[in-house]
Automatic annotation (TrEMBL):
Residues 128-152 are annotated as: Disordered. Residues 11-125 form the Response regulatory domain. Keywords: ATP-binding, Nucleotide-binding, Phosphoprotein, Transcription, Transcription regulation. It comes from Hydrogenophaga bisanensis. Residues 163-392 form the Sigma-54 factor interaction domain. This is Sigma-54-dependent transcriptional regulator. It comes from the Bacteria. InterPro entries: AAA+_ATPase, AAA_lid_NorR, CheY-like_superfamily, Homeodomain-like_sf, HTH_Fis, P-loop_NTPase, Sig_transdc_resp-reg_receiver, Sigma_54_int. SUPFAM superfamilies: CheY-like, Homeodomain-like, P-loop containing nucleoside triphosphate hydrolases.
Length: 496
């Protein structure tokens, strides 16, 4: 993906102790219209930084009088706005990770590809969100003020709004998303199933300077092992049986944007080694190809598994874990943010009703209390399934606990919703056995809804309008459920 040149010249500081390389970097950037200053040591760089501000700092890792990381840390402590790009030795993954954790925007590996150098500078400039009138005064080197953080772009604001919750922990996560979005550092999102890890990954993308590029989401556990290399890196015609034409892989498809590797813990060990090499060198070789191709992607990965424990058990490569876990975002389970339950219920109901054309019902306080007492091990995904079932079973304009199809628990006493209070002479009720926990909650809920709809249809001689009225639905809602659940009506190709 071609990178567009910045609208204004940038003021860049290059720090390298090798005169030939320093000159090469200077000439390359001068041809792009930038103003370039150069230093051969930490002391020279500090002197230049004390006298003026820069847009971008490009520094070698090892210098005669110390490490380039020292400059990064000093700039961070002084709250300076320069975007830092570090040049590391070939294959030095540890140095690259350390640089990113120290606040570097990006890193380049020796020998430096000049196209990557130009692209990294452009991306560093594009990532600087600043308010009008703030920041350095341009390439003339005059003293400026530090950049002020501006809000994310409109798409980023919308993506953050889709992460529902105003609890303290969710506020911290949203603030961290905004912060990490302005770098190229890999992000590892950890959290239980159903906590919304893909929503967070999309927010990182939409808040970044790569928002105009593609967001490619990959479920690492859903790809057959014999096809995984071709899926990730692409394949040339004839590379395997059935490869009738060249095809691009996920890395090529995500060029200029973000590659989201969901369930990264399910990736086979053999593929982990290949993925590590691509992340470090930013080049892929398609299956059956001879030449390597440069790739320009930011990696965001996610898992519900304990990767550190998998590393200890030999199930996940330590070097890949170290490389992916540069910035960690841990998403809390719903039980850890109960105060967000009400807004989540309203948001999910609004979306479910908009999809089905149903009028949005109110949620009774008793229903919210019932949900608050529920364990919700499936987190937001389970909450959505419960609401979907309640919408299907509800016959009024308000959701009640009995609409969720389970006994209501009040004051430690469990009663069926339609059970009348026992009189003095009534024999004690025999408690019904608790239902087994299903292995697949969504399939279980779909089957319950399917049986309810079939019963109503049969009792109404498969008249959809009458069955819809019986269930408190309109005809559009009824058709939607029949189609979604695959219910065959008389006259269809197959019998029910």
């Amino acid at each position: 993906m071609a990178v567009t040149a910045p609208a204004r010249p940038a003021n860049i500081l290059v720090v390298d102790d090798e005169p030939d390389l320093r000159t090469l970097y200077e000439l390359t950037l001068l041809r792009e219209g930038h103003s370039v200053s150069a230093a051969g040591s930490l002391s020279e760089a500090r002197d230049l930084l004390s006298r003026q501000r820069f847009d971008v700092l490009i520094s070698d890792m090892r210098l005669p009088d110390g490490l380039g990381l020292e400059l990064l840390r000093e700039l961070a402590q002084a709250q300076r706005a320069e975007k830092c790009i570090v040049i590391t030795a070939y294959g030095s993954a540890e140095n690259a990770v350390e640089a990113l954790k120290s606040g570097a925007f990006d890193y380049l590996t020796k020998p430096v590809d000049l196209r990557q150098l130009r692209a990294a500078v452009v991306e560093a400039l594009q990532s600087q969100r600043q308010l009008p009138g703030s920041g350095p005064e341009g390439a003339n080197g005059r003293q400026g003020t530090s950049l002020q953080a501006a809000p994310p772009p409109p798409g980023g604001i919308q993506a953050l709004a889709r992460i529902v919750g105003s609890s303290t922990v969710m506020g911290q996560i949203k603030a961290r998303i905004e912060k990490v979005a302005t770098s190229m550092a890999p992000v590892l999102i950890q959290g239980e199933s159903g906590t919304g890890k893909e929503l967070v990954a999309r927010a990182v993308h939409e808040c970044s300077h790569r928002a105009a590029g593609p967001f490619v989401a990959v479920n690492c556990g859903a790809i057959p092992e014999n096809l995984i290399e071709a899926e990730f890196f692409g394949a040339r015609k004839g590379a395997y049986t059935g490869a009738s034409h060249d095809r691009e892989g996920y890395f090529q498809a995500a060029s200029g944007g973000t590659l989201f590797l969901d369930e990264i813990g399910d990736l086979p060990l053999a593929m982990q080694a290949k993925l590590l090499r691509v992340i470090q060198e930013r080049r892929v070789r398609p299956l059956g190809g001879v030449q390597e191709e440069s790739v320009d992607v930011r990696i965001v990965s996610a898992t519900h598994r304990d990767l550190a424990a998998m590393v200890r058990n030999g199930e996940f490569r330590q070097d890949l874990y170290y490389r992916l876990n540069v910035i960690e975002l841990r998403i809390p389970a719903l039980r850890e943010r109960r105060e967000d339950l009400g807004p989540l219920v309203q948001s999910l109901l609004q979306r479910l009703c908009a999809e089905s054309g149903q009028v949005m019902p109110e949620v009774s306080p008793e229903s919210l209390q019932w949900l608050a007492q529920h364990d919700l091990p499936g987190n937001v995904r389970e909450l959505e399934n419960l609401l979907q079932r309640a919408l299907a079973l509800s016959s009024g304009d308000q959701l009640m606990p009995e609409d969720f199809g389970e006994p209501l628990k009040l004051s430690g006493v469990e009663t069926a919703p339609d059970q009348a209070p026992a009189g003095p002479a009534t024999a004690p009720a025999v408690a019904a056995p608790a239902p087994d926990i299903p292995n697949d909650l969504q399939q279980f809920l779909d089957e319950q809804e399917r049986q309810v709809l079939l019963k109503a249809l049969r009792e109404c001689d498969f008249n959809r309008t009458a069955a819809a009225q019986r269930l408190g639905l309109n005809l559009r809602q009824m058709r939607y459920r029949i189609q979604r659940l695959g219910i065959m009506m008389p006259g269809d190709d197959d019998a029910i």
